[in-house]
Amino acid sequence: MKNFKTFAIALFLAVGTLSATAQNKAIDTKKSSIKWVGKKLTGSHSGTVSFKSGTLAFKGGKLNGGTFTVDMTSIAVTDLEAGKGKEKLEGHLKNDDFFATDKFGTAKLDIKTVQAKANGVYGVTADLTIKGKTAPVSFDLTVAKNTATTKFNIDRTKFDVKYGSKSFFEGLGDNVINDEFEVEVALVF
Question: What is the CA radius of gyration of the chain?
């Protein structure tokens, strides 16, 4: 009986220690945001897309993982007004030329490795899946209290988004669209 009590106390302490050191924090999808900027030779467009869900994983108070799902059907253009091209561009971004949101309604990012760089700054490598295609992305993520922020570029052609790309089409002239687009992410958890 004495050994059983000792084992039970040790197990309780071990579980308590594990739960204190490993913690998943769900993001607030309403307060978190993704802003994007796509550039072309003759200008740029900007907009937003919303999170469907997301979790950051911490161990011992330090970031060690995470996974996020983005609602691709929420793509919105913010630099154009309604009736002045906004709806047309949003429709084009959602069709097969770009993100095919009727077939691929979500995108996903899974953090694979995390390297502490400085106080609250982590070098992150993740698998990003868009249109059913997965490719690695790397970025710095700054974590402070209940927020995390990053800004990085995504090469859309790695995800079969080739419309207007000079890497795949010749003779586009002024209609070339940059292969990379920029995302700025603000997480609240």
Answer: 21
Q: What digits encode the pLDDT tens for the residues 72-108?
A: 999 999 999 999 999 999 999 999 999 999 999 999 9
Cβ burial of 107 (10 Å; 0-12, 13-18, 19+) is buried
Q: Among 2.40.128.110, 2.30.40.10, 3.40.190.10, 3.30.420.40, name the CATH number for the domain at 21-188.
A: 2.40.128.110
List the structure tokens of 73: 């059907």
Distance, CA of 38 to CA of 30 (rounded, Å): 23
Cβ-Cβ contacts under 8 Å for 147 (sequence gap 6 or more): 186, 187, 188, 189
Decide: 104 and 132 in contact? Cβ < 8 Å: yes
State the first-to-last Cα distance of the chain, in angstroms, to the nearest integer: 45
